Amino acid sequence: MSAGLVSMNRRQLLMRLWLSTLSILSLLAMLVLPASADQYKYQTPVAPGVATPDTLETSIGTLHLSDGNPDTAPVQKIYDIWARSAGCLAGRCPASSANH
Q1: Do 60 and 78 meet the contact criterion of CB atoms below 8 Å apart?
Q2: What's the pLDDT tens digit per position in 6-58?
Q3: At 93, is the pLDDT very low, low, confident or very high (cuts 50, 70, 90)?
Q4: What span, in angstroms and rounded, lies between the C-alpha atoms of 12 and 70?
Q5: Which member of 14, 20, 31, 63 lies 3.0 to 4.6 Å from 56 by CB, making a disulfide possible if both were Cys?
Q6: What is the Rg, in whole angstroms, of the alpha carbon atoms belonging to the chain?
Q7: Could you tell me the CA-to-CA distances from 97 to 17, 29, 57 in Å, in that order?
């Protein structure tokens, strides 16, 4: 046994073992479930008008969607806008800071 495990009490050791087991089982579930997701006996088609469009016009530009998920470029642009806004609110921009 390593020196770190010797200093742990029994409860900490059991908790660490339980979390390790849970992590391994979660990883296995993520690997197995996507492979079996397409093997349903019945498949209900999506009703017309309910599906997400392939393109969506927004205030930041056109989003090109694939199964409802945007491409990486618009996501990066949204993140950049959010990061600038959060930075201004955190005090980087004196005009929007409560401290100035």
Answers
A1: yes
A2: 566 888 888 888 888 988 888 877 777 665 556 667 777 777 777 778 888 88
A3: low
A4: 43
A5: 63
A6: 24
A7: 47, 46, 32
Q: CA-to-CA distance for 3 and 21, rounded, in angstroms?
A: 22
Task: Supply the pLDDT for residue 24.
Answer: 87
CB 13 within 8 A of CB 5: yes
Q: Which residue is listed with tokens 């100035």? A: 100
The DSSP secondary-structure symbol of 59 reads T
Question: What are the structural domain ranges in the chain?
Answer: 1-36, 51-100
H, E, C per residue of 54-84: CEEEECCEEEEEECCEECHHHHHHHHHHHHH
Could you tell me if 54 and 65 are in contact, meaning their C-beta atoms sit under 8 angstroms apart?
yes
